[in-house]
Amino acid sequence: MLPLGAPGYGPPMSGPKSENLTWHIGEVDRATRTAAHGHGGATLWFTGLSGSGKSTIAHRVERALIERGAFAYVLDGDNVRHGLNQDLGFAAEDRVENIRRIGEVSRLFTDAGAIVVTAFISPYRADRDRVRELMPDGQFIEVFVDTPIEICESRDPKGLYKKVRSGDIKNFTGIDAPYEAPETPEVHLQTDKLSIDEAAEKVVDYLAKQGIIEAT
Asked: What confidence tens digit (pLDDT) does each residue in 154-178 have?
């Protein structure tokens, strides 16, 4: 991975199928983008079970950052599947490709100097680690939204757990498909002990402590 002060990103580790492509270096480097936005770029990668509160907290973080004048944007799992990833299902190979694509989009956002906030179950540790490898050191921030499955199921905002229990949905993460929890996340949110605002504040505080945004 590139050091934080490196002038910019290079091409991804794995190359494209076509051989007739060249990676172009632009005229604006990362330091210039940071100066323009008033903060550094980063990817906040929220991961957790369905119903854990990922999207809710992610959007609260986005609002808090925007109110501070930051360039921030949420990439939500369901929203992305309505467009960019509408061709993907929930089989294991589709989940891998879903995260690969989002990782590349997040990489571009981060290179642009944005604080991109993603909210995806992203159940496989290896997939999350591959996205981390795309980023310069310190710019991939794993946020574990740690909510007991009993609470997730009691919330069931989309009615998915009910469908799982009735047999209408198979291979559901946390029930009959695995979820590999982060081992050393940068931010650990135990949502049974935190309110939405407290969880969002913890994430924003982390960004300030890392020098990505200015402390208030």
From this structure: 998 889 989 999 989 888 888 888 9
53: left (phi over 0), alpha (psi -120 to 50) or beta: left
pTM of the model: 0.84
Q: For strand 42-47 and strand 115-119, is the pairing parallel, antiparallel, or unpaired?
A: parallel
Q: What is the pLDDT of residues 71-93, one digit of tens each?
A: 999 998 778 788 878 888 877 78
Spatial separation of the C-alpha atoms in residues 199 and 127, rounded to whole Å: 24
Phi, psi at 115, each rounded to 5° = -100, 100
**Mean pLDDT on 30-59:** 90
For residue 196, CA distances in Å to 43, 60, 62, 151, 164 come to 20, 8, 13, 15, 27
What is the three-class DSSP state of 147? coil
Cα–Cα dist 15/124, whole Å: 23
Q: Residue 191 has which token pair?
A: 């949502």
The one catalytic residue among 18, 122, 154, 166? 122
Q: Please, what is the angle between helix 92-111 and helix 125-134, to 10°?
A: 20
Give the mean pLDDT of 46-66: 96
Residue 14: active-site member: no
Q: What is the pLDDT of residues 136-147, one digit of tens each?
A: 999 999 999 999
